[in-house]
Design a protein that fits this description.
- There is one protein chain.
- The chain contains twelve helices and seven strands.
- By secondary structure, it is of the alpha+beta class.
- The protein has two domains: 210 residues; 169 residues, 2-Layer Sandwich (Heat Shock Protein 90).
- Helix 6 packs antiparallel against helix 7.
């Protein structure tokens, strides 16, 4: 039985423990309240009887006894003086006697032992009046005082002494009743005070029990759990958490232990992944080194033979041109053109591979300045075609590489000029506004032209390196321009796409991150200084 009870108690939650304590307190307080209510009711009843019944009855008894004494005195005075005025107290005393007797009967209703004393007094008084007072009054002749013999006086006194004895009995019984009521009142008050003391003691004990319960069932287990969590936070991931305390605290500790174990497992997995990443990083570094070597070879070793091929083909044409027929001359032209185009492709490939990799910088760039430089770089084509460019003033500042951003604008402007409509001057419109929705915190740029446009099926292909939509005879170039634009935008943390809803040419939309407050603060401090 003890083991079952202990198991049940250990399965209680903090709320369960508090509920048990509060139920016990409630039962004790309710019992104390009931006992106190009974005692208060008894105290009130005893006080009411004492104040409203016993004490008034004692007063009425004194009036009754005084009325009878007045009657006895009036009879003796009348017998001696034979004056009718002495009978007035006698008859008034009878009325006062009746009034006092009625009051006593009303106040002592339900107390037959005290009513019996009143009945005995009234009966004795009636006997005294009928057997002594009335005959004596009748024997007196008004105006003729009579001489009361000693024997008559003794007889009258003896008859009235019996009434006095009844007076003493009645007073004794009323005093006893009063004392009993006072005793009961004191006893009820004492029990009431004891009940109130028990309730107060119960509250105090309950407060102590709750304090001890909270400390042992909540504070200590939580402190132990917090200490274990701090040790784990400091790096002791092997620290096991032992559940302690009530059921719900143990459940929390078990959850934290599960979380610790999950973190340990994840750390083990991440260690393996980190080792793999380190290995892959080493491979990537070796691959980058090989790529650097390839770039060096492409920029020096590969271009030098191409230049020689082109130069010697040109020398061959110059020296033996008059000895070659038309087909031979064409072959030489093909060789020279192929060598030059190979040089251009290699240079473009090198430029594409170096974006964001070599000598990359991150500074605050004024887009108005880089756009001016880009337009200046293609000013000849702009003047030849009569191109018109509209742009907002001013463009924002962004964090980026000035050289790459010049290349971004230059490729967009040169493409718009190159792929223009026949017999129509290019019209280029640039707009900028803060982006919204998922791109909030970035600048949204729009670059629109009135050129030949791009069909919907090619909107993704134009950003692929060396992807050409037209033959080299129609438009010069290697098809790297828009691929380079896309790589520059993405290197700066933005994105670019073609707005297919625009039908008057081609419209590019791209985003660049806005400068944050933390990035802007050094600039503001420098300006202030």
């Amino acid at each position: 039985m003890k083991e079952v009870a202990g198991t049940r108690l250990s399965g209680l939650t903090v709320r369960g423990w508090l509920s048990v304590v509060l139920v016990v307190v409630g039962v004790v307080v309710l019992g104390g309240a009931v006992i106190a209510a009974v005692l208060l009711n008894r105290t009130d009843e005893t006080s009411r009887q004492l104040i409203d019944n016993i004490q008034p009855a004692r007063v009425a008894a004194y009036r009754l006894q005084a009325a009878l004494r007045d009657q006895e005195t009036a009879v003796r005075g009348y017998v001696i003086a034979a004056d009718g005025q002495f009978l007035t107290p006698y008859y008034d005393g009878q009325k006062a006697e009746q009034t006092a007797a009625q009051a006593i009967r009303g106040q002592l209703a339900g107390r037959p032992e005290l009513i019996g004393d009143l009945d005995a007094i009234e009966q004795a008084a009636a006997t005294w009046r009928s057997g002594y007072a009335e005959p004596l009054i009748a024997s007196v002749t008004p105006g003729s005082p009579s001489v009361v013999t000693k024997a008559d006086a003794e007889a009258g006194k003896s008859k009235f002494d019996s009434l006095r004895a009844l007076f003493d009995t009645q007073n004794t019984h009323l005093a006893t009743a009063r004392n009993d009521a006072v005793t009961q009142l004191d006893t009820a008050r004492a029990w009431r005070d004891r009940a109130l003391g028990v309730v107060i003691a119960t509250f105090i004990i309950t407060g102590l029990v709750i304090t001890i319960l909270v400390r042992n069932a909540v504070t200590r287990p939580l402190d132990a759990l917090a200490a274990a969590c701090r040790r784990i936070t400091n790096g002791s991931f092997g620290q096991h958490i032992v559940p302690e305390g009530p059921k719900d605290i143990r459940a929390i500790a078990a959850d934290v232990e599960d979380m610790r174990q999950r973190i340990v497992d994840e750390l083990d997995a991440s260690s393996a992944a980190r080792a793999m990443l380190d290995e892959q990083a080493g491979e990537l570094r070796r691959s980058n080194a090989e790529l650097e070597q390839f770039a060096y070879v492409a920029s020096h070793d590969l271009q030098e033979p191409l230049r020689k091929v082109a130069s010697f083909c040109q020398l061959l044409e110059k020296r033996y041109g008059d000895q070659l027929d038309e087909r031979g001359q064409q072959y030489i032209d093909f060789a020279v053109d192929g060598a030059k185009r190979m040089q251009i492709l290699i240079n473009d490939l090198l430029t594409f591979s170096r974006v964001g990799r070599l000598n990359a910088t991150q500074v605050k760039v004024n887009l108005d300045t880089v756009l001016d430089e880009a337009i200046a770089n293609v000013s000849t084509s702009i003047e030849e075609t009569g191109a018109e460019i509209t742009r907002p003033q001013p463009l924002p500042r962004v964090m980026g590489d000035p050289t790459l951003l010049i290349m971004l604008w230059q490729n967009l402007v040169s493409n718009a000029v190159k792929f223009r409509r026949e017999n129509q001057a290019p019209r280029i419109a640039i707009t900028c506004e803060p982006a919204t929705g998922e791109q909030e915190g970035q600048w949204m740029f729009t670059f629109s032209d009135n050129g030949i446009g791009i069909a919907d099926e090619f909107v993704d292909k134009v950003f692929v390196i060396f992807q050409r939509l037209h033959g080299k005879d129609a438009y010069a170039g290697t098809g790297i321009g828009l691929a380079l634009v896309k790589k520059i935008v993405e290197h700066h943390g933005g994105s670019i796409w073609i707005d297919t809803s625009y039908e008057d040419g081609t419209r590019f939309r791209f985003t660049l991150p806005a400068i944050t407050a933390s990035e802007l603060q050094p600039q503001l401090e420098g300006t202030a200084s």
